[in-house]
Design a protein that fits this description.
single chain; about 190 residues; mainly alpha; about 80% helix
């Protein structure tokens, strides 16, 4: 019972932290202005880990490697601590190596989950309050994901099915990556 509760709290805290690092990398990739209040919030939440990593891991043109490295480290801790807390007392000898691959898969799963939630929030707000102050940010964040789908789908007039397609694809990716993560760890 206590292990379940600890795992639940650990999962929430580390997942939110990992998603914050991924969101920071995404903000860098799409070149969202750093003085945007939402960008500032993400930067303040993640700066404690990203700034020291910048000395070791440099940025590239469109890739914020320090933020992605921080997300990977958080995912690695998530996998190792989750395994130790929830799964087994008998730790396999190659757990640390398998956890590296599982951490990479976890980062991809968090990214798919982030895309799913950003798209879902944008879709709901577009129906309920399309003039909400956060809508331009959500549109900027999801446009690189939705535009390729919009180019493929036929024009249907007033209905934009690209959001539905992205929601389905992100959910499928989350399921597949979760199963893959379990397979790598050996659950």
């Amino acid at each position: 019972m206590l292990n379940d509760t600890l795992y639940f709290v650990l999962n929430i805290i580390l997942s939110l932290l990992g998603i914050a690092f991924i969101l920071r990398a995404w903000l860098y990739a799409i070149r969202l202005h750093p003085f945007n209040p939402y960008s500032q919030a993400i930067i303040k939440v993640t700066d404690w880990a990203v700034q020291p990593l910048r000395r070791i891991v440099p940025n590239k043109e469109f890739i914020d490697w320090p933020s992605l490295t921080a997300a990977f480290i958080v995912a690695y801790l998530h996998v190792i601590l989750g395994f130790l807390l929830y799964i087994s007392i008998n730790v396999p000898a190659d757990l640390l190596l398998r956890a590296l691959l599982a951490a990479a898969i976890t980062v991809a799963k968090w990214a798919a989950n982030m895309a799913l939630w950003l798209t879902l929030i944008q879709a709901i707000l577009s129906w309920v309050n399309p003039t909400a102050p956060v809508m331009p940010l959500l549109q900027t964040l999801t446009a690189p994901l939705l535009n390729p789908i919009r180019r493929i789908l036929p024009q249907t007039g007033a209905f934009d099915f690209s959001t539905l397609v992205l929601l389905i694809l992100a959910q499928i990716a989350t399921f597949v990556l979760q199963r893959l993560s379990f397979a790598v760890i050996g659950i």
